[in-house]
Amino acid sequence: MRWTINDSGSQAGRLAVVTGANIGLGYETALALAGRGCAVVLACRNLDKAKAASARLRAQHSAAEIECMELDLTRLKSVHHFATTFAKRYQSLDLLINNAGIMMPPYALSEDGFESQLAANHLGHFAMTGLMLPLLANIPGSRIVSLSSLAHKWGEIRLDDPQFEKGYSRYAAYCQSKLACLIFSYELNRRLQAAGIKTLSVAAHPGVAATNLAHYFPKFLSIFFPLVCQSAADGALPTLYAALGSDINGGDYCGPRSMGQMRGAPIKVGSNRRSRDEATAKKLWRMSEQLSHVQYRF
């Protein structure tokens, strides 16, 4: 049976944080959640763009509860400031949607010395999730959704050179970051279960969706994009299914049904053996704690 957002029922009284919610998949995720009555915090690097997105959301859902908060996932200071500020304003959190990301930019290091894609896609979310976990841990039905990608299939965690200091490939760095997101989601769920915490950690990927992430793609690829791309709204459905689906269990991975998971209705999907390697997961977890200076407390 095809899952749609209407299957989720009312989300009134619940609160979600969506990172990178001013555009693309994040915006469509926030729009759908607001439409079901969920209060949504748009956690975005550019506050002006977040406010513009908030205005667009309210134009479609006039009663929506929307707040904009600044969050730059490539700066650990910003991650800590966001988490501290959020905890002062809110007592709990129902949904944490780790959506924001960048895709195949030129080589750059964050101010903390991390390769930019690893910083934005994985390490920033790793740190923020650890800092926000106390607000999620005791809330019935709470979930953490981490966004991965089909590109995880071609990724490898370079534990000896995660910042690509020995030669940069924007493609390999992107694949590494998205594999890290998926490994993190699985390992987080194992640790939550071991600690007896009911919060679910699940993952999703959008297939091939028409979003701003393709900004750095070679121009010739834009010719083929319309042939395989689904809309950002459709690309957000696996995220929404992971966040709201009644049959979702911790450790599930959601993606599109058709064309090799490139498009279609959201379903539970599989992932490669590398993403489920628990030895690598433990090493990545230790590395992420060391680099981010965030220790999870279960």
Q: Quickly count the domains.
A: 1
CATH topology: Rossmann fold
Q: Please provide the count of β strands.
A: 8
Sketch the major β-sheet: 8 strands, mixed
Can you describe this structure in just a few lines?
With 298 residues, this protein is of the alpha/beta class. The chain has helices at 24-35, 47-60, 76-89, 116-136, 170-194, 225-228, 232-235, 237-244, 278-292; strands spanning 15-19, 39-44, 66-70, 95-98, 143-147, 200-204, 253-258, 263-268.
Name a few traits of the molecule.
298 residues; alpha/beta; Rossmann fold; eight-stranded mixed sheet; 9 helices; globular
Summarize the structure in words.
- With 298 residues, the chain is α/β, with parallel strands linked by helices.
- Strand 2 (39-44), helix 2 (47-60) and strand 3 form a beta-alpha-beta unit.
- The model is unreliable at 213-217 (pLDDT under 50).
- It has helices at residues 24-35, 47-60, 76-89, 116-136, 170-194, 225-228, 232-235, 237-244, 278-292; strands spanning 15-19, 39-44, 66-70, 95-98, 143-147, 200-204, 253-258, 263-268.
- The termini are far apart.
- 39% of the residues lie in helices and 14% in strands.
- It is globular.
- It is built from 9 helices and 8 strands.
- Helix 3 runs parallel beside helix 4 (116-136), helix 4 runs parallel beside helix 5 (170-194) and helix 5 (170-194) crosses helix 9 (278-292).
- An 8-stranded mixed beta sheet has the order 3-2-1-4-5-6-7-8, sandwiched between helices.
- It has one domain (7-292): NAD(P)-binding Rossmann-like Domain (Rossmann fold).
